Each structure stands twice: as structure tokens, then as C-alpha cells.
Amino acid sequence: MAIQYSPIERLEFGLRWECARCAYFEQMGWKSRVTELNARIDQIQYDLNQIYSDS
Fold first, then answer.
1. In which domain, by residue range, is 25 found?
2. Residue 34 domain-assigned?
3. How many domains does the chain have?
4. Residue pair 48/15 in contact by the 8 Å Cβ criterion
5. Quick check: is 1 in a domain?
6. Is the pLDDT of residue 2 over 80?
7. Which helix (H) or strand (E) holds 26?
8. pTM score, two decimals?
9. Cβ atoms of 51 and 25 closer than 8 Å
10. Helices 7-28 and 31-54: crossing angle, nearest 10°?
11. Could you give the C-alpha distances from 30 to 8, 15, 38, in angstroms and in order?
12. CA atoms within 13 A on the CB side of 46
């Protein structure tokens, strides 16, 4: 039986995952990929803030 995660838990996991990916690509020197991931991280943080402010 699969574990069901709430939308907040999924977003928090996604945030941690994308931060780890960003750190890796930053270390490798892929600036364009880092810029793309930072935009994705900003969107996830925005979504989390929206959810937290609604509750």
C-alpha cells in the first residue's frame, strides 16, 4: 500500500530535491541550469507561502 502525502509534504520534498539539484549543478558550473532551477525553487516557495498563509 502506497503512502499518501499531502500537497504540502510534496512541495516541501520538491523544494529539498530542487535545492540539492541546484547545489550539484552550481558545483559543476552549469549556470544556465542553476538559473532555471532557482526559478523553479522560487515558484515552489511561493506556492508554499500561499498555502501557509491560507491556513
1. 7-54
2. yes
3. 1
4. yes
5. no
6. no
7. helix 7-28
8. 0.86
9. no
10. 160
11. 29, 19, 12
12. 6
